# Entry
Amino acid sequence: MNKISSTLTVISMSLLLCVTACTDNNASTPTPASQKRINQTRSFNAPNQNVLLQAVLATLQDQGYNIVRANSNNAEITAQRDGDILISVIVYPTGKQQFSVRANAQHFVGNNGFFSNNQTGYEVIMDPVFYQKEFFDPLSKSLFLQKENLSN
# Structure
């Protein structure tokens, strides 16, 4: 009886180890929400928040956006391009002369069977290349020009 009990204990422990080893506890894999935040956020150095907000405004206008709303108190800017892309940008401090900029872009989706009940609406742009090439690269250039006093 003692031998059977110890054999069952060994089998149970082996199964427990196998199940534990087979589970994926990889906490470094980003969730969809955290991956979206990573794609949409970059860090920048600037003398102050207003300088960075001015660079964001200039960048959006240079990229063909019309400014819909700008709120310097909340460090938030909303703009639209060609009636089909809407972008909201917020700027928040992360340290002395260091700021994070988060851009959330959406594109207009007409009723092509995507929405039920003939609805239309906006869908979040998830492509990290869009954010980098269409916003963050031009913003970096704008900040550089501003720093070097090369802009008009």
